[in-house]
Amino acid sequence: MRLVLVFAAFVSVVASTEWTQQPFSCDPADQKTKSLGFCQTNLSISARAADLVSRFTLDEKIAQLVSSAPAIPRLSIPAYQWWSEALHGVAYSRGTPLNGTITTATSFPQVILAAASFNEHLWYRIGQVIGVEARAIYNAGESRGLTLWAPNINIFRDPRWGRGQETPGEDPTVTGKYAVAFVRGVQGDTFLGGKKNLNHLQASACCKHFTAYDMENWHGNYRYGFNAIVTKQDLADTYQPPFKKCIQEARASGLMCGYNSVNGIPSCADHNLLTIVARHQWGFQGYIASDCDAVKNVFRDHNYTKTEEETVADVLHADYGPFTMSGHGVIFSGSLQMSMRSCTFTWKLQRPRHKIWSSTEFPERKAHHQYMVGGTTAKRFRTMNLPTQVKSRTTQIMNKVFVVMWIHPRGMMQTMK
């Protein structure tokens, strides 16, 4: 019943909020963009993204490479913030500041506690609520993005790891199942998957941190420059399976590379990891983001490259999108070919941002408006209480042990001691 009450509180707040239409590109009433290729809904997402990229100037491409992407007024492209957090509920972040009329969202137990229920339906329902609330806040005009950087599906191998509470635990199978259920819920897919039109995402989920990341600061080894030595067998049996399931079964639209190196190569500059494995072998078609300053760390902490320009060339060659850094001279230099930049932008824009802001009328959008003003009387909200079988003796004990892991949704990530 607690789940119902907490979620109901959020709905009541949103229902009392004046609905402000979030700016979308390709508004049919906008004569300036009506005839442009990227606004033609009869074309594929990839074709529309390619057309849009072809219209960007060099400076516009540079600006769009970072997490705080500015508006492009001449193309009626609104500003967008890629960085939003939703580990166990929509949380305070750059994308969702929670500083308007909506100041909070439903906060669920930390992931390791929810995972202890071993209930895939529960994980899916948690993801559903997070996705619906993220979309509702965005449609109310009170968030700047719908790309949620969750779940954290790293393997919790050492109990001294401070961020282990963010993960489903030490088991690759459980972690993989959690990723599938959570991502499907967030993105608006069915529990069994495969039923959702991925051209209309409810919100975007991003599986992180790819790969073998599970250490912050230990005996002088800091996460920004740590080199994880991992055997091929451990990668195949332990660290990679959750990410493979996240891509192939959950069809996550986002993937985040981590701070660390794996066997001497920084994750965010590893062409084999990001392109050969994730894209070619597993079929990933979404965007890849760096963790905070992970691009800079390739040069500064890993000493993998000689210059900042070479660093960005390497990570773009590795194939991924938004950086949480900026700088004209750092991002572009003579060593970068326009074709490489265009390829990066095409991946970034076609999944999922283009799907979020390029459509003005579709059933899900209307449904979320009804959800915002309809209160909690709908049957789907009345049935969200935890099943009796989940409230086992184990869960009761875990509730007492991990009560400290409840974090207020406005609390910044990674701040607990």
From TrEMBL:
Leader sequence residues: 1-16
Organism: Cuscuta epithymum
UniProt-recorded name of the protein: Glycoside hydrolase family 3 N-terminal domain-containing protein
Similarity section: Belongs to the glycosyl hydrolase 3 family.
GO molecular function, a single term: alpha-L-arabinofuranosidase activity
One biological process term in Gene Ontology: xylan catabolic process
GO cellular component terms listed in the entry, alphabetical order: plant-type cell wall
UniProt xrefs under Gene3D superfamilies: Glycoside hydrolase, family 3, N-terminal domain
Keyword terms of this UniProt record: Hydrolase, Signal
Domain Glycoside hydrolase family 3 N-terminal intervals: 102-309
